[in-house]
Amino acid sequence: MTDWDIKKLRILRTLADRGTVTATAEALHMTPSAVSQQLTNLARQLGVLLLEPQGRGVRLTDAAHLVLRHTDAVFAQLERADAELAGYLAGDVGEVRVGAFSTAIPSLVVPAVAALERQHPGVEVRIRETDAAQSYDLLSTGAVDLALSLAAHSAGDDSRFTRIPLLVDPLDVALPPEHPLAQAPVVRLADLSSDRWIYGGSGPWSEITRSACEAAGFLPEQAHTASGWTAILAMVEAGLGVALVPRMVSARAARVTLRVLTHDRPTRHVVAALRRGAESTPAVAHVLAALRTTAAARG
Fold first, then answer.
1. Is pLDDT above 90 for 254?
2. pLDDT tens figures, 198-250
3. Which pTM does this prediction carry?
4. Measured between alpha carbons, how far is 177 from 196 in angstroms, rounded to an integer?
5. d(CA 295, CA 299)
6. What are 84-93's contacts with CB under 8 Å, separation 24+?
């Protein structure tokens, strides 16, 4: 029977995700030479060629992709085994590392953790602020157990992950207090087609803003680029442009005029992502349930 080495298979999976030996070594806190040696040993154990040269780097062979198709199912089964063992040994006791983007922490994660401490005091949650785009990388390397992300950053059909919809977050438009439409009875995105816009230069928020404006019939003129809401709202307040703002951020927007876009109804979709099988872990299941309850209360 073939000798399947789980540690080496995880290195191969990380290489498939990260693309280079150097990036794989950084993700797993190894040296590049150690990564190469482990993969060479794995190829010898399996009796197949796993890597072949490509330019200055390497690429996975067809045999490597075949191996990964099977090992993804093995990893999911091991997650379920860990979950059952954790439930047997610890019951409602355990640590869960949660990664979440900045606006989700005060709106979803903090209220959920506060409720969880009252209901299951043995479950300890460690919160890590992350960029939504990092969620699946952090999950794949084991840096977090559960990640809050946006559907725009979905890992698609990647069978290693389970994605659970949490919240549909409406987007409002933030206007300078002296904007001509600040007191208008109704505001539509199309009314702002000639305005200067503020949003991120890349990533899901750029995509969400552009898509919403394009659906309203125009391309937004990007006057300024920012990714943090403190910076965006400060620029709107100063009259430098307008911006789409998630409802989650509304509490921070005291000095700008927020208008609900009842006609356009743009939204973003917040999801909880986990390694497949990890949702059975008792502590993770409690955290997920608390997040879903908090999200439902906001909805």
1. no
2. 998 766 778 889 999 999 999 999 999 998 888 999 999 999 999 999 998 87
3. 0.74
4. 15
5. 6
6. 84/280, 86/281, 86/282, 86/283, 87/280, 87/281, 87/282, 90/122, 90/282, 90/283, 91/122, 91/282, 92/120, 92/122, 92/123, 92/282, 92/283, 92/286, 93/122, 93/123, 93/283
